[in-house]
Write a structure and sequence with these properties.
The protein is α+β, with helices and mostly antiparallel strands. A 7-stranded mixed β-sheet has the order 8-10-7-11-9-12-13, with helices on both faces. It has 2 domains: 13-156, 60s Ribosomal Protein L30, Chain: A (2-Layer Sandwich); 162-334, Alpha-Beta Complex (Phosphoribosyl-aminoimidazole Synthetase, Chain A, domain 2), CATH 3.90.650. Helix 2 packs parallel to helix 3 and helix 2 runs parallel beside helix 6. Helix 3 (111-127) links the parallel strand 4 and strand 5 (132-139). The protein is built from 10 helices and 13 strands.
Length: 342
């Protein structure tokens, strides 16, 4: 939205709810033809995609729980809200079709911050070809809250669930793990970013600017190469446990195989922690963990090569015996729980 003069002292209260909605609608641009009704009505109306099922998910980001405005730019907060939400679609092998954005905003929020949150969110949505079709704006007496509902589509027989794994399946993870948790650690410790080395800066980038693995989830699902999948919103250890428990199985993670993020290793060593334990327990990576039948590993690895250069690593296996373990140096130790809210 072009503005001849920017007033950094203006707040959202001065513009009002309808003014903010109009501001979002103008920034969102024209919707694609399959959206019958978009922003501005009581509900959105979408033309269904033939031969697919709808995949729907929702996520909330709460100030001082999932982000701090003192640390992270408003633009990156908005961008993160989009990627965190559509990461669940990636884990199901779905293609995003639309998003709904609900904001609970303190009246003192600067209009420039509102615009930056919107720019970050809508920029990420446009890059993923996912239009904003509605939502809600409400006053918050406390923290800023961003709630996103994401709608996707998938072929019925290609939807990936947590519960589809079998004993003997191999576990593969995309990218590296532990970086985002390390980035949060550097920020929480109050380090001056200017004094940190490149690995620490990269970790902070992982925390503030996650990337949903949409293409990889879609490629693997369409190839029928995996039996189950989950994203690493709460860490590798949590995802491995949840896939195992949902499938009635146990799990063993190979410590030597875990692709520990370089920044995570530096943070762990600087704080006297075991790098592997810290990496598998840390959340906010938003990588994908796949369970793959042993007879389909070649198919999986061939499909993974089409994941836009994203590395994929075998990190463990699912077992008939219950329990969650980390195997290291010929012995097994309990797998940590991962991130928990309570």
């Amino acid at each position: 939205m072009p503005e001849s003069r920017r007033d950094d002292t203006a707040t959202i209260a001065a513009l009002g709810e309808r003014g903010l909605i109009d501001r979002l609608r103008q920034r969102a641009g024209a919707p694609p033809p399959w959206i019958v009704i978009g922003i501005g009505d009581d509900a959105a109306v979408l033309t269904p995609e033939r031969g697919t099922v709808d995949v729907v998910t929702t996520d909330s980001l709460i100030e001082d729980v999932h982000f701090r405005r003192a640390w992270t730019s408003a633009h990156d907060i908005g961008r993160k809200a989009f990627h965190v939400s559509v990461s669940d679609l990636a884990a199901m092998g779905a293609t995003p079709r639309a998003v709904l954005l609900s904001l609970a905003l303190p009246p003192s929020l600067a209009l420039s911050e509102f615009d930056a949150i919107a720019a970050g969110f809508l920029g990420a949505a446009a890059a993923a070809r996912t239009p904003l079709v509605g939502g809600n704006i409400a006053r918050s007496p406390g923290p800023l809250v961003i709630d996103v509902t994401a709608l996707g589509s998938a072929r019925p027989r290609r939807v990936l669930r947590r519960s589809g794994a079998h004993a003997g399946d191999e576990l593969y993870v995309t990218g590296s793990v532990g970086g985002a948790a390390a980035g949060l650690g550097w920020l929480a410790a109050g380090h001056d970013r200017k004094t940190l080395d490149p690995a620490a800066h990269a970790s902070i980038e992982r925390y503030e600017r996650p990337e949903a693995r949409l293409r990889c989830g879609q490629v693997i699902a369409r190839a029928g190469a995996a039996r189950a999948c989950m994203d690493l919103s709460d860490g590798l250890a949590d995802a491995a446990r949840q896939i195992a428990e949902a499938s009635g199985l146990g799990v063993v993670i190979d410590a030597d195989a875990v692709p520990v993020d370089e920044g995570a290793r530096a943070w762990a060593e600087a704080n006297g922690r075991d790098p592997v334990m810290a990496a598998v327990a840390g959340g906010d990576d938003y990588e994908l963990l796949f369970a793959v039948a042993a007879r389909r590993t070649r198919r999986f690895e061939a499909a993974a090569r089409r994941c836009s250069g994203l590395p994929v690593t075998r990190v463990g296996r699912l077992t008939a015996d219950a329990g969650a373990w980390l195997a290291r140096s010929g012995r097994q130790e309990p797998l940590p729980l991962g991130f928990v809210h309570y």
